[in-house]
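BUG-615 | component: ligand-complex export | severity: low

The export step for guanosine-5'-triphosphate jobs runs without errors, but we want the raw record kept on the ticket for reference. Input record follows.
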Amino acid sequence: MTTMESLIGLVNRIQQACTVLGDYGGGDNTFSSLWEALPSVAVVGGQSSGKSSVLESIVGRDFLPRGSGIVTRRPLVLQLHKTDEGSQEYAEFLHLPKRRFTDFGAVRNEIQEETDRITGKTKQISPVPIHLSIYSPNVVNLTLIDLPGLTKVAVEGQPETIVEDIETMVRSYVEKPNCIILAISPANQDIATSDAIKLAREVDPSGDRTFGVLTKLDLMDKGTNALDVLEGRSYRLQHPWVGIVNRSQADINKNVDMIVARRKEREYFATSPDYGHLASKMGSEYLARLLSQHLENVIRSRIPSITSLINKSIDELESEMDHLGRPIALDAGAQLYTVLEVCRAFERIFKEHLDGGRPGGDRIYGVFDNQLPAALKKLPFDRHLSLQNVRRVVSEADGYQPHLIAPEQGYRRLIEGALNYFRGPAEASVDAVHFVLKELVRKSIGETQELKRFPTLQADIAAAANEALERFRDESKKTVVRLVDMESSYLTVDFFRKLPQEVDNKGGNPQAPVTDRYGEGHFRRIGSNVSSYVGMVSDTLKNTIPKAVVFCQVKEAKQSLLARFYTQLGKKEGKQLSQMLDEDPALMERRQQCAKRLELYKAARDEIDSVSWTR
Ligand SMILES: Nc1nc2c(ncn2[C@@H]2O[C@H](COP(=O)(O)OP(=O)(O)OP(=O)(O)O)[C@@H](O)[C@H]2O)c(=O)[nH]1
């Protein structure tokens, strides 16, 4: 069977884990809060309403700081654990796990000091809770959260905004649907003006989760009583009101023992002419039992929804962690492995762009199929082989003595001059393909999911790939220029062997006067012969330039884009590798938060599982 202790203790343990991992009410969180899903009892009351007295009475000990001004400046999560009769009472703080406090005066000091540790001496308030566990035979199992008292004016050096700040913080607790509100109001004040009831009415209008507590019944004017409130006529709540008589200031000054005070309170109700009929349902001990029972019931009813929240959150966090990438190991071997994995992922994507599957590779074919032929077509051969130019080149080549039979030198010069023009389109093809490849590198880097988290490695890979592409471009340029140079270094003899016959076939007359040899027709013929030779070379280069470009650039990029990078990588030390895997700090932070959260939810799931086993 699930015991009361195991259920309330379960929530205690989960709450502690929440605080350790930074999930607490009022905290600024981007995650769904587990804390908020846990049922808790928050104690709310105006200044001097008797809040501290009620808590101390429930515990049966003096342990809360007292003083003027706002003393409670951080939420105090007070976890009460009932121990066996006769065992020693002690207290423990979550922030001092190894220290057992048996002196409750020291507990009071520690609360004060721990409050100042976060808020400084500025008297500011902070939402970070202090967790205090009290183990005692005189308590019931119960967890209460003591919040700063609602106040109307700031006093002695407290910031002006404190009134509003306190209300905001208290509200952030009590507005959560899983919060049980313990609203403390003094009986010697009109209930309609009670700060606690005002706030409770706002956040819980149906009064479903509000427990009304009326203190200072003994201080009411003679002849008046609080029966209208206690019997629910003044302000109706779903749960019955509980009347309390705490120690008076005089009792406190006299150090009246809490256990004695409890007894006095019992006697007060038992002998009261006004409240005698309600005696069994009044007093701080009854209040503690009532709350404990209620809290346990609420927790029991919420366990299934808490479990499903936990499971859902674990799933979400795990998928987010997958998306963010798992943390990188610290040893050099694992880091090298990670770098290589990421590089391979990049290379895979880059190859897909070239081979098909991803767009972009087709633009290389576009260079060969459109740009290169168009550029070849545009070369200014018309101008180069104009009658005027042919005449000039041939004459200049002949020197002082014109050629006798065929202008060999003239032909050579004209052809060489024409072939030189091919360098331009050849180099332009190399550049065009280079830019396509560069663009594909850029795209592939963007598309490599694994790289997203490593901006440094991203830059390193981009630099290495671009450096490699530059090398391939240089090599490719040398090769295509060489192709062009090869064409000029040895002309196709066959072509010229056929020429005289062609001239004859076209009706050349051997008997024609010699002067005709140097006439217009002669030079036009030379121009047209050179033009058809150049056309033949152009056709050849149209085929061989793409082959050279693919061989030197595309194939190399596919095979060894990162080859040099890999060689350098092998020489790197652990420190350099971890610099490469230097992640975006925002991402690291998010992963850390997710990991912490995941740890919390898993711990909570284990806690719940362990309770279910005892059922
Ligand atoms: N006679 C009598 N005095 C009470 C009762 N409850 C509280 N007091 C006195 O009222 C004063 C304020 O009580 P606290 O318990 O300190 O009230 P609080 O709401 O915690 O006050 P702050 O922490 O200052 O906001 C103290 O002097 C208490 O002795 C009560 O039921 N009867």
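Assignee comment: Attached the raw record above. The two ends are 4 Å apart (CA to CA).
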